[in-house]
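Students often ask why we bother encoding 3D structure as a string. The short answer is that it lets us treat folding as translation between two languages. Here is a chain of 189 residues written in the first language.
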Amino acid sequence: MKKIHITFSLFGLSLMLLFSAAVIQPQSKGLTAASDYTKEASVLADRNTEVKGVSAQEMFEYERLFQDAAFRIGEDEEAVHSKREQPDEEGMYNGGSYYDFGTYTYFADPEQKRINAVAVRGETAAGIDQEPFFNELEGKMITSGYNEMDGTWMEIYRVNGGDLVIEREEEQSAPAFIWLTEPGLFHDE
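And here it is in the second language, the structure alphabet:
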């Protein structure tokens, strides 16, 4: 009986040591369970990482609004000219160039020759889920007020990737335009 008790005790101790080694030494080549977990945990900690085609974390509503934009803030303005399709309209706006492709309008800094803002019209933004959109912006407001030059109400929020600017005809009206801009484009930093 004593021999059976000692055997089970040693067997249990052996299992405990084996599992402890797997957890304590996640880089061990022979024990992959803990090292795989550690790798997955570090991948999931990065919110921009994709795991098997699925985002590791939910995309914010404002990111969803701009996810299909062909050009990104900071991208060379020349990329707009090399695009196969021509803009519906292009011209000058507040000293810089703009390129209107319908859903998205891109604005370029004339000195640095790079895109510094992307805007969508209110009717495009009408498809977003308003409640989570504005909940995500809670506590991120930089400034708001009446823009006398354009005759619109503006709210500016600090978000990942720059500033989000909501332009309305009046303070309580639906957004007329939503912009994603480089930080400080519409306000002093």
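Translate back mentally: The first strand starts at residue 50 and ends at 51. Keep this in mind for the problem set.
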